[in-house]
Every structure is written in C-alpha cells, then in structure tokens.
C-alpha cells in the first residue's frame, strides 16, 4: 500500500481536496462547490451580502460540505486507509464561533449520521464573517488608536488595521451581540476549525501562528497575543482565542473516529495544524528567501519571502507557515492590489477591441529592446480605490521629458489619452509591474539578494527578487510574463506537473497541495527525523527524479516542479534605470489626487 497524504482547502467558494503520493505527485483532486452543490444555503460566490458592508457565509454550509466531500472521496474510491497525514487550508481572516457544547458534541460524533445533522449546536454563531466584509471601520480605528496608530499596529501585528482582519471582526461581534459573545466558548480561524473537525476529539485546536498574523491581534515578534488589544475586546478574549500553535509540523491529533468508522481512514492518520490560504500557496511553491509570487487574478497579489521581519502599513507580514518550534523565524510579506486584471481588461476593452492579441501586439511593438530605450510614459489606473497606495483612486497618465535625466520626471505632461493610443497597453502594464518591482525591493533586505547586484552601474542598488512565480488568470498571457521578467529583472517561473509522461503547466489547487506538503513534512518529523520543510520537499523531488530515471547530479528544474517561462532580456536594463523615475511619477499622481 502506497503511503498517501491529504490536503483540504476551505476557500470562499468551495471545499477542495488533493491526494498526494509520498514523493508529492498529485494523484487526485475533488471539490464541493458551495453555490451549486449546496444551493439551499443561497450563497453567491460562496457568500451572502448583508447590510452595512457585511459579507458572510453560513457555518453549517462548511460542515455539510465536509459530508459531501468525504462521500465523493468514497465514491471515487480514494485509498483513504493509506493516508498517513492530513492538514487543512482555510480562507484567511474568517472566524468560527464555538458554543459551550462544542467539546462534548465533537467527542461523541455518531458515525452513522452526517456531521450536518449533529454539529449545529456546536456553534454559538451561525455565520462565518468573510474576508470581503468591510463593516468594521470603527473597530479598525479603535485598534489603531489603542496602540498609537497604523504604523504602530503594523509593527506589532504585521499589518495596519483592516476591516477583514479577525480582531476588528471579533470586537464588532462582541459590541453588537454581547450575549452571544459571552456564550461563545472558543473562537477559531477557518483553518483551525477544519483541524478541529478533522480530529473530532473534543479539543478545539490552536490557531496556526502564520494564520494568526492575519488577525491584527498577534504580536509577531514577541510571539504572543497582544494584551492591549485583548483588553480592548475584553471579557476573556484571550481564553476564547486559546493557545497559538507555534510548531507548524506538530501532530495535533489523529483523524477522528467518525472518519475512521464511516469512511475507513486509518486511526493512525495524523492531523497537522491547518493554515491560511495564502500561507498554503506559499508552501506549494516552497519559496526561499528573496523569491516571490505574483498572482494575477481578479486582484493582483505579490508575495515576497524574506528572512527579516518587515512590518509596513502597505503590506502584511506573516510568520513562515512551516517553521518547527526551534527553527529560526522567517517571514513573508504580502501586498494586495485591487486594480489587477479588471483594470487591464478595462484598458483592453477601451483601446484594443476586447482582444488580448491586439493588446499584446501593441506591447510587443513598443517595449524597450535596449538599455537606451528608456520608458517615458506611465499610466496609473486606480478604477477602484486601491489598498496600495492606500485609497489611491482615479486615472493619471503622464509623458515625461526624455532630456530630464535617468531618475527625473522633469516637467511631466499630464494627458487624458496618449497621442499614440497603442501606448496604452504598455503604459498600464509597466506601471503595475514597476509597482511590484519597487515595493518588493523595499521589502527585500540587501542580504536577501545573493549574487550580483542588480544595478552595478547605478548609484542605488535596488534589490530584486531572484525568482518570481506567476499564477492567476492573466499568467496565461506570455507577453505579460515576458514583460514582467524585464521590469522585475528576474526569471519568471510556473509550476509544472508530470501528466501522461509529460511536464505540463500544473493545474492543481495550490492551497490544498501546499498543506498536503505540510502533512508530508510533519509526518516525517513524527517518525523521529528532524528535517526542515524545504529540505523535505527537495528530498521528495530527488526521490521522484530517481524513480523517473534521473541519476546523480542536480535534478532538472522540472523535477523541482518548476519551468522558467520568461527571462529578463535587454529591455530589463532600461527598466532597471527607471525605478526611481517611476516612484517619482507615482508620488506626483498621488499628490495631484489629494489636491
Ligand atoms: P480569480 O481567481 O481572482 O477569480 P483568475 O485568477 O481566474 O481570477 O483571473 C481572472 C482574470 O484573468 C480575468 O479577470 C481576466 O482579465 C484575466 N485573464 C484571463 N486570461 C487572460 C489573458 N490571456 N491575458 C490577460 N488576462 C487574462
Ligand atoms: C488575504 C485575503 C484573501 C483571503 C481569501 O488577505 O483577504 O486572499 O485569504 O482568499
């Protein structure tokens, strides 16, 4: 019997599962979609929109999705008896509220009956506030003023206050429903709620340390709950939150009897701490310090792995999601932009007949090909008020004076449309990518960037990411990826997987795969082998390379699960010289906005 590992992912719209081999090949996946598989809960995109910015989902929908998911796994005859370890990923920030009866209900589940028919009284609150909720502006102000403002809160908790973060959400719940708050025995994140259900041993499992960084409550460097903020919530907030799980690869329990009796799991199947969806994605890529991820989805997200703690009001600093209790701390930073694909699509529709081919052709005909091809146009498309820069809104386009010097914008001319309309595609892409280049450089410590300085001939050495992974819908566009390699001055990679004897772009679900890696790592440690997460993943990949006939020497990049899809060309040297120029233009746009 081949040992197997299972990862679950409770995201906004679905509950997914990935089954992995001992060497981390993805063997099978399946999913339950909330809107279509559980229509009785009447969600749209997995959520319900309430009043005053409230966005939530019914907690029993998640529980019932467990019933459906494991039924589906059974129908598909997954060999669950061979699963050695399991871990979960959950949408970040969202919280689950347990009643006083939770513990006894969880330890006495009847395997003949569905979870949905047993667990309803285990929750004190029938809803899970979703990360899209924006109802807590008042509470955010209170969080910030308690510790001395947004910069101070970022320093302590890794982020300034955000409406979706769990701390402000809990405070609002307590203010609006003090009785129900009082009746709540424990508060989980979605990730730790999944871990709790998987174990069903009566204990509400601790919140994972990396995921705790998305709460505005965890003192990241002190590694404890921030007392002044617990006091702000008041009434036993610390006891309700419980201990944080600081060993990401610890066995926190074994799969519950309900799963063993009903579906045939082995009672020895170990459960490892669940984590948030972004930390889980980070794990699926095994990002080393100075590597990054650019996700080009509805919104754009940049993740930067770093060995130093870099709290900044513009980004979110998270603890590394696969650290053992004695490993040296390391971190990653995340920057979220609202004006990603939708802004690019808007420009495409306005100027390029709704065609990515036409949009790409315009980019290819105008992009810099030599160090002397310095960009002199920029377009900031803040169609929605953005998160970074905070509240930036409006559209700002400039043409700068080519004689003004490398870093200067001179008398930049503001225009409504560029005289040559085909510049519009390049101008939006360059401005978005310069943004990712500039801000990821700020997060990177010089010591994080090994090898040659990126800008030997320039006065300022601007650190760069050593490798960038591209994901999300727009990562299908090779022109965008190639331009990204130039502006970020870094190789751009995609994950690949071995399908039908060929390496192809991976189409597995990154979050459930990332936590299955974590289960694999935790299981190895539970067998008495101290090994880091990165070393374990590398070892598994070496093993599978050997199985596929690669002997000796370094394994191919593809065996590492990576394919380089774009490399910086000559144009990169032109962009390298214009980072400060772009920063000056962004500054100008923001100052004109506030006039
Ligand atoms: P999410 O996961 O956030 O729902 P996706 O990662 O699926 O979104 O990305 C969807 C976006 O991808 C769309 O808004 C679309 O603009 C963009 N997209 C899809 N294909 C391309 C392409 N060939 N070029 C550029 N953008 C694309
Ligand atoms: C991150 C965020 C979302 C959620 C849901 O801060 O709010 O990415 O994690 O996916």
Automatic annotation (TrEMBL):
Carbohydrate kinase FGGY C-terminal domain span: 293-492
Record-annotated Carbohydrate kinase FGGY N-terminal domain positions: 5-282
Catalytic activity: D-xylulose + ATP = D-xylulose 5-phosphate + ADP + H(+)
Stored InterPro entries: ATPase_NBD, D-XK_euk, FGGY_C, FGGY_N
Top enzyme category: transferase
Pfam families attached to this UniProt entry: FGGY_C, FGGY_N
A GO CC term attached to the entry: cytosol
Record's keyword annotation contains Nucleotide-binding: yes
Transmembrane region(s): none
EC number: 2.7.1.17
CDD domains: ASKHA_NBD_FGGY_SpXK-like (cd07776)
One annotated GO biological process: D-xylose metabolic process
GO terms of molecular function: ATP binding; D-xylulokinase activity
Alphabetic keyword roster: ATP-binding, Carbohydrate metabolism, Kinase, Nucleotide-binding, Transferase, Xylose metabolism
Purpose: Highly specific D-xylulose kinase which participates in the catabolism of xylose. Xylose is a major component of hemicelluloses such as xylan. Most fungi utilize D-xylose via three enzymatic reactions, xylose reductase (XR), xylitol dehydrogenase (XDH), and xylulokinase, to form xylulose 5-phosphate, which enters pentose phosphate pathway.
Family statement drawn from the similarity comment of this UniProt entry: Belongs to the FGGY kinase family.
PANTHER family the UniProt entry points to: SUGAR KINASE, XYLULOSE KINASE
Name this protein carries in UniProt: Xylulose kinase
Gene source species: Kwoniella heveanensis BCC8398
